[in-house]
């Protein structure tokens, strides 16, 4: 068991180690998701996924074009 200065130094090192940003998966996900369904607001990575989404979830609707 540590005492005094050793204890303070160990606590400081542990606090630094635990406070480092490990990167958020939510931030990375937001960057990767570029398309979204205007009907249900689902975010998708690319146009192909959007077309597949429309085919399965909104079969009566036509998917938006690439430019939109």
Automatic annotation (TrEMBL):
Family matches, as Pfam families: zf-met (PF12874)
C2H2-type domain: residues covered: 35-63
Biased composition annotated in UniProt, kind: Basic and acidic residues: 1-19
Record keyword Lipid biosynthesis present: no
GO CC entries: cytoplasm; nucleus
Gene Ontology MF annotations: zinc ion binding
InterPro entries: MBS1/2-like, ZNF706/At2g23090_sf, Znf_C2H2_type
Keywords recorded for this protein, A-Z: Cytoplasm, Metal-binding, Nucleus, Zinc, Zinc-finger
Zinc-finger listed as a keyword: yes
Subcellular localization(s) per the UniProt record: Cytoplasm; Nucleus
Location, primary (coarse class): cytoplasm
Region of interest: Disordered: 1-25
Top-level taxon of the source organism: Eukaryota
Full protein name: C2H2-type domain-containing protein
């Amino acid at each position: 068991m540590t005492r005094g200065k050793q204890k303070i130094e160990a606590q400081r090192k542990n606090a630094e180690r635990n406070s480092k940003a490990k990167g958020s998966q939510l931030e990375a996900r937001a960057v990767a998701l570029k398309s979204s369904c205007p009907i249900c607001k689902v975010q998708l990575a690319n146009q192909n996924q959007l077309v597949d989404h429309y085919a399965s979830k909104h079969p009566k609707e036509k998917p938006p074009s690439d430019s939109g």
